[in-house]
Design brief:
Helix content: 25-40%
Strand order of the largest sheet: 1-2-3-4-5-6-7-8
Shape: globular
Number of helices: 9
Order of helices and strands: EHEHEHEHEHEHEHEHH
Largest sheet: 8 strands, parallel
Strand content: 15-25%
Distance between the termini: 20 Å
Structural class: alpha/beta
Length: 258
């Protein structure tokens, strides 16, 4: 019984030919709860429709940092309207991306990030945070904007233990995905080992970042089981113990039992 907190199976073009089969495989691999991410204005209605078709699927909605130029009064209104759905459990993925330097100016990204944190606080919804090559600015802005009021999930966490501690202090859960299985990621494995068990959530970020032995191939939401097995071995626990803990953590992070 696994909760995959970050999937793009709803909109990823890589799933266009066999989306239903991929979803069925995820169920067979033990995924009983899934969150899909509407991260651009055009995709949000698709994400909501997908979540509404499946009683075990939830949604986050937001404007991804590489799409920050989409932000404006219309985008904010659309997010507010989408958040009225009981399927929407978070604002995300939002944050900063300093890798794709030609997508949106960094100063625009930072401003839009701040505005979406304020929106999440206004709506009382947790955040799903995207961070690529922007560790210090992401955490600083979260601290300055009082994001601890709503907390959320640090998606595909790539920082070190010091950054993880700052995120934990902000009431965030740490998202562990396929990159933890990569041999060239000792820092990620250290974080996965040291985190309190009650602050870990699991994800795939499919169709990207597939775990070993599928690295370099299309990722699937069902592969969260591989991540769970790896983390269980890393921490000397059973798969069942990791599944139970991370399921409870995800439900708490997204306030599904409130």
């Amino acid at each position: 019984m696994l909760f995959n907190t970050h999937s793009h199976v709803d909109t990823g073009r890589q799933f266009a030919a066999d989306r239903d089969e991929v979803v069925a495989r995820a169920r067979e691999m033990g995924v009983s709860q899934l969150m899909v991410i509407g991260f651009e204005r055009a995709l949000i209605p698709v994400t909501l429709a997908f979540a509404e078709r499946h009683d075990w699927v939830w949604a986050a909605v937001g404007i991804h940092p590489t799409s920050a130029l989409e932000w404006g009064p219309d985008a904010e209104r659309e997010l507010r309207e989408a958040a009225r759905s009981p399927k929407v459990r978070a604002i995300g993925e939002v944050g900063l991306d300093y890798y794709w330097k030609d997508k949106a100016p960094f100063e625009v990204q930072r401003d839009v990030f701040r505005q979406q944190i304020r929106l999440a606080r206004d709506l009382g919804l947790p955040l799903v945070i995207h961070n690529r090559d922007a560790h210090e600015d992401v955490v600083r802005i979260l601290e300055e904007e009082g994001a601890d009021e709503v907390g959320g999930i640090m998606h595909c966490f790539s920082g070190d233990w010091e950054m993880a501690e700052r995120c934990l202090a902000l009431n965030f859960y740490i998202g562990i995905g396929g990159t933890v299985t990569y041999k060239n990621n000792p820092v990620g494995r250290e974080v996965a080992q040291r985190l309190p068990l009650d602050r870990i959530v699991l994800e795939t970020d499919d169709p990207y970042l597939a775990p070993v032995p599928y690295r370099g191939k299309r990722n699937e939401p069902g592969y969260v089981r591989i991540v769970a097995e790896f983390v269980a071995e890393l921490r000397g626990l059973t798969l069942e113990a990791i599944a139970e803990a991370t399921m409870a953590n995800a439900r708490r992070a997204l306030r599904l039992d409130a």
